[in-house]
Design brief:
By secondary structure, this protein is mainly alpha-helical. It has 2 domains: 1-37; 42-124, no CATH class. It contains 6 helices and no strands. The chain has helices at 2-24, 29-34, 41-64, 70-94, 97-114, 117-122. Helix 3 (41-64) runs antiparallel to helix 4 and helix 4 (70-94) packs antiparallel against helix 5. Keywords: Membrane, Transmembrane, Transmembrane helix.
Length: 125
């Protein structure tokens, strides 16, 4: 999960810088033509805000893992389930299928791993 947090932070910075750059160049005809199929900037900023909240939640939960509480495991499962739904919505809205499908697969993999008997035993204690 630490890798997910670090990658999430990097992607947030790159995404925010990209949105700022596109906003600054909004009058450019080439930028307007390239962003024709994308949702409005407001929707893109909302997706960025949701991603930021998810990364902060991941950071809080990854810090709580050593406590080995069942509530932490349940919260992580719910967090990645929400993340999967957000990835599906982002893929549909932005047509960025590759990165969203990779994130979706990672979310599903982590949910599957956390549902195993070993994970339940680890977080039981």
């Amino acid at each position: 999960m630490w890798i997910s947090v670090v990658l999430g932070l990097i992607l947030l910075v790159v995404g925010a810088l990209s949105l700022v750059a596109v906003s600054a160049l909004a009058g450019d005809p080439e930028i307007d033509a390239a962003s024709e199929g994308l949702p409005s900037m407001g929707v893109m900023w909302v997706l960025m805000l949701i991603s930021a909240v998810l990364v902060v939640a991941q950071l809080v939960l990854v810090i709580r893992i050593p406590r080995r509480q069942a509530a932490t495991r349940n919260a992580i499962v719910w967090l990645f389930a929400i993340s999967a739904v957000v990835n599906i919505a982002a893929a549909v809205l932005t047509t960025d299928y590759v990165s969203n499908v990779i994130s979706l697969l990672i979310s599903l993999l982590l949910i599957g791993l956390l549902m195993t008997a070993d994970a339940k035993r680890y977080f039981a204690g």
